[in-house]
Amino acid sequence: MKRILALLLAIAPALGLAEATAWNLDPAHAHTSFAIRHLVISTVRGDFAKLSGAAQFDDKDVTKSSVETTIDVAS
Fold this sequence. Notes:
This protein has one helix at residues 2-11, and strands at residues 21-24, 32-38, 42-48, 51-57, 66-71. It is mainly β. The chain is elongated.
């Protein structure tokens, strides 16, 4: 019985039974930075300390997938 259940769980994505997968951004392991060219002479670089976000991936219809990110520009 356990083998049948394991087999069904393994092939469920192939049968279209998979649901959307969601991920949250881990701020401790994420980094947001930028670089801006100034008069083609120098590059100004900076980074933001506070950010959050989430992503959702839909296996059935990729057009229903989404990414949302919020960056505190004052950080």
